[in-house]
Amino acid sequence: MEQKQVVKKREYIAKIRVLYLLICFFISLVSVISISIYNHLLIDQTLCLVFITIVFAIVVAISVMHKRNRKELVDFDTSYGRLCLRLLYCWIIIIAGNFLPEFLVPVALLPIILTTVCDETVSLSISLYMIISLCYVQHSNNIVMICYILIMLVSQVSSSYMKTSEDKMRPDVIVIIFSSNVMITLICYYLLNYNMQLPFVISTLILGAVSALFFGLLFNPLLERSIKDNTNKYNTILSKDYSLVKDIKNYSLAEYTHAVKVSSLARECAKVIEANEMCAACGGFYYRLGRMEGEPEIDNAVRVATENCFPRDVITIISEYGGIVSKPSTPESAIVHMVDMLVTKIELMDRETMSSSWNQDMVIYQTLNDYSQAGYYDNSGLSMNQFLKVRQRLVNEESFI
User: CA 109, 115, 120 angle in degrees (round to 5)?
Assistant: First the structure.
């Protein structure tokens, strides 16, 4: 009971992620000071903007870490290093905006770049802050700010839609980006000046085309790169050359053999029900990581996994080890629990008893049915049909020894 309280109350933060967030803050601070100096802001005005930047950075950093811990960022794990890089791109756009005429800063690109590495709320907040900062240092008219915000909102909604759309090449969305950029800019320009000049119209059409082209050609590659980063992380932490893999093998060859067996079977079972097989494989391999770290086992396992920047879904499986603190909350976690319980139980039996396939099948049926009836998988999202498929796959396994 004491361990349960400790694990639930503590949230670990990887040092490397804190470092990346500090780099993001440094990039923002330098950018804000640079555009303030370029636009000849007074010292007190610059200091006020710096103070606002500090407060904003703290709020966004807390939001990013909190959302990541609650698995609300994106359907893949956020790369903090890639977030730094994308943030730098966005500030370059804002700094370049100092040299462009009013209404012609490509603010539509901001959410397109950011949405591929963070959720809509964080992307929207950062984009909005950048636009307000630019308009403030340039002493822009409110209509200019409204123009930028409206264009950014259309781009944000379009990016969020495309991220979840099965059709990754939607011409209608690209047309919306182009037409909204052009129409909003022209209308706001007219409201401010009550006239329309041909050079400005041509410039607006070019800007709209550039924004739409960027969205159409680069959004999906940026998104896929972020997803690929997460997949690469799965492969990295399962590699035989990975430090933790070597540590487990050096700690105990029996533990290493057990981990490899659970990982392999969990991956096969996840494949049967079309779950995340790499997540199940990683979760299965590191399921008993706490044994190497000592008491409190689960708490220490979560700490080590977090410090090594494991994907959040893998950390979730590790934190639900054995259903001690909390029962499996995902299909992958349920699969790993089922496989580990079986492998552990069969390992404890003598080889002569388990030499018969009939005996092994009976152990599988009895063990899995007992856990299922006890409600261990009720909150995992694993349907009865999926449970039966996983059980049958395990029954078909020739030997667990």
Answer: 115
Confidence tier at 2 by pLDDT (50, 70, 90): very low
The pTM for the full model equals 0.76
Dist CA 88 CA 226 (whole Å): 16
Q: Which two tokens stand for residue 74?
A: 């994106």
Q: Which residues of 245-271 are buried (b: 16+ CB within 10 A; e: fewer)?
A: beebeeeeeeebebbbbbbebbbbbbe
With both helix axes pointing from N to C terminus, report the angle between 253-272 and 384-395 in degrees, rounded to the nearest 10: 130
Residues 6+ apart with CB under 8 A from 3: 295, 296, 297, 298, 299, 324, 325
Q: What is the DSSP letter of 309?
A: T
Cα gap 63→262, rounded to integer Å: 35
Instruction: State CA 225 to chain mean position distance.
Output: 12
How far is the C-alpha of 157 from the C-alpha of 124, rounded, in Å?
Answer: 10
Q: Which two tokens stand for residue 240?
A: 């035989």
> Is cis: bond before 106, omega within 30 of 0?
no
Residue-wise pLDDT tens digits, 366-387 = 989 999 999 999 999 999 999 9
**Do the Cβ atoms of 36 and 49 come closer than 8 Å?**
yes
Encode pLDDT of 86-103 as tens digits. Answer: 999 999 999 999 999 999
How far apart, in whole angstroms, are the C-alpha atoms of residue 119 and residue 106?
21
Integer Rg of the chain from CA: 26
Reported as half-sphere exposure (CB side, CA atoms, 13 A), residue 243 has a value of 4
